[in-house]
């Protein structure tokens, strides 16, 4: 079957309208742009036709239609990444598929493709349970998990992908399937970490962990102390036990009245910290960092796990952004100096966030659930996020490249959700044997190339 890029007359969509329960929208329809828009406002959506799926049956019907019409298929949920787009493309949006079912006795959750982590948190918190939510609960559960799923709690519990029990998806033939480590194990392995091009995931089931509270939050240091704080963190972070997680970020904060007054319009260094054990032990471990520099604001306490967003304090609303990241084998003093030279507080920069997260602990251990998650041998992961708007907006690409060039001598690939790489660039993230296995599985399930790979960074 050939995939065409020629326009199709809108009357051809009548058959699609009669087979799906959700809306079918073309660029001339009211609601088309809203259906495709999402968190990343730099992503300008475009597709020949959009199907707002209400369930797996709608997704399957859309894929079967696309095959018969010679269209390629993309999928969009929360819109944290770049859009699947183009003439000859049918995009399935899953934002209506938000069901979350929790089994508090079995400690599992089944989550549909459009659900965000905040939906899961609301359902699990009353039971003292949690999934491995990322730094922001506004991120979609499925894309985050299929890309690995790095939680602030990850050093204690591993990647979110390591806890998945089963995956419901629609493959390129338009059939709804359920796969796990025994049934459809190759596809299951590839989806968990490989993420794109194997099918459209409509729901996942995963294990929950018993963690009603944790100790943690953040300390904001004055940007003028960036060198002292980053060097102190570089030496301190690797000494932590696996119960503790941490990251450090240089933040260029807007003069937003919704921010705490000490942070408005400031360049700050944000130390993030979590500990899943005894609070007094956790506080003692953190103590050496409190004297690293002048503190602008601190919000460290025993918190409900439902309040994990308080650790990173990521922007809650949509914003334009572009990202680039890499995994790091180590973080010597020279690497910190090189990073500060291109992204420190003295640099006029469009980069809103330049962060380094500590890996290791159970993130490095052999996975209980076989999967293709990248970066297990890395010690850290770095990510730069720029805002392609405002006076320096046109320089975002150059500044992202400068950060990654500064760290290149210590890089060891990337975590998929933190990579910011295109579909073609991402192939290099896996060792040769895993890359070949992923491609073999992809060709087996989509020999005609119906499914269009996405280009998102889904941090979370």
Topology:
Blueprint: H1 14-17, E1 24-25, H2 32-36, E2 47-52, H3 56-69, E3 72-76, E4 86-93, E5 100-103, E6 108-112, H4 117-124, E7 129-130, H5 141-146, H6 154-157, E8 164-170, E9 176-180, H7 185-194, E10 200-207, E11 209-210, E12 213-222, H8 226-236, E13 244-252, E14 267-275, H9 279-286, E15 295-298, E16 301-304, H10 309-312, E17 322-328, H11 333-343, E18 351-358, E19 380-386, H12 396-407, H13 423-426, H14 432-445
Parallel strand pairs: 2-4, 3-4
Antiparallel strand pairs: 1-2, 5-6, 6-10, 7-11, 8-9, 8-10, 12-14, 12-15, 12-16, 13-14, 13-18, 17-19, 18-19
Helix pairs in contact: 7-14, 8-11, 11-12
What does this entry show, briefly?
By secondary structure, the protein is of the alpha+beta class. It is built from 14 helices and 19 strands.
Q: What is the structural class? A: alpha+beta
Please state roughly what percent of the residues sit in beta strands, choosing from under 5%, 5-15%, 15-25%, 25-35%, 35-45% or over 45%. Answer: 15-25%
Morphology? globular
Individual helix count: 14
Number of strands: 19
Describe the largest sheet. Answer: 8 strands, antiparallel
Radius of gyration: 22 Å
Spatial gap, N to C terminus: 37 Å
Helix content: 25-40%
Which regions contain 5 or more consecutive residues with pLDDT less than 50?
Answer: 1-11, 79-84
Mean pLDDT, to the nearest integer, reads 90
């Amino acid at each position: 079957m050939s995939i065409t890029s020629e326009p199709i007359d809108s009357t051809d969509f009548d058959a699609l309208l009669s087979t799906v329960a959700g809306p079918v929208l073309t660029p001339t329809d009211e609601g088309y742009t809203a259906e495709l828009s999402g968190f990343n406002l730099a992503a300008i959506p475009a597709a020949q036709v959009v199907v707002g799926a209400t369930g797996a049956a709608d997704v399957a019907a859309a894929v079967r239609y696309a095959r018969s019409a010679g269209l390629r298929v993309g999928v969009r949920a929360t819109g944290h990444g770049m859009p699947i787009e183009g003439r000859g493309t049918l995009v399935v949006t899953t934002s209506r598929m938000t069901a979350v079912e929790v089994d508090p006795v079995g400690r599992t959750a089944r989550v549909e493709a459009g659900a965000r982590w905040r939906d899961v948190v609301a359902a699990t918190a009353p039971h003292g349970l949690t999934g491995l939510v990322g730094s922001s609960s506004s991120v979609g559960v499925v894309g985050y998990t299929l890309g690995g799923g790095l939680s602030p709690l990850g050093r204690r519990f591993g990647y979110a992908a390591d806890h998945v029990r089963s995956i419901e998806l629609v493959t390129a033939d338009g059939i709804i399937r359920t796969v796990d480590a025994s049934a459809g194990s190759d596809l299951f392995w590839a989806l968990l970490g490989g993420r794109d091009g194997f099918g459209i995931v409509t729901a996942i089931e995963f294990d929950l962990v018993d963690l009603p509270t944790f100790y943690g939050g953040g300390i904001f240091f004055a940007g003028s102390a960036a060198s002292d704080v980053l060097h102190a963190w570089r030496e301190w972070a690797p000494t932590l036990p696996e119960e503790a997680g941490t990251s450090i970020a240089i933040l260029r904060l807007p003069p937003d009245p919704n921010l705490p007054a000490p942070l408005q319009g400031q360049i700050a260094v944000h130390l993030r910290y979590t500990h899943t054990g005894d609070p007094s032990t956790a506080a003692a471990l953190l103590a050496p960092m409190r004297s690293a520099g002048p503190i602008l604001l601190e919000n460290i306490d025993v918190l409900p796990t439902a309040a994990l967003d308080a650790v990173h304090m990521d922007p809650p609303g949509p914003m334009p952004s572009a990202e680039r990241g890499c995994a790091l084998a180590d973080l010597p003093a020279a690497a910190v100096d090189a990073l500060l030279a291109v992204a420190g507080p003295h640099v006029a920069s469009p980069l809103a966030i330049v962060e380094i997260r500590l890996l290791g602990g159970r993130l490095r251990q052999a996975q209980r659930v076989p999967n293709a998650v990248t970066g297990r041998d890395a010690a850290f992961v770095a990510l730069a996020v720029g805002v392609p708007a405002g006076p320096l907006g046109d320089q975002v690409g150059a500044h992202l490249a400068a950060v990654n060039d500064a760290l290149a001598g210590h890089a060891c690939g990337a975590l998929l959700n933190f990579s910011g790489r295109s579909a073609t660039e991402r192939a290099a993230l896996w060792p040769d044997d895993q890359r070949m296995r992923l491609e073999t599985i992809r060709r087996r399930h989509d020999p005609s190339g119906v499914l269009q790979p996405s280009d998102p960074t889904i941090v979370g």
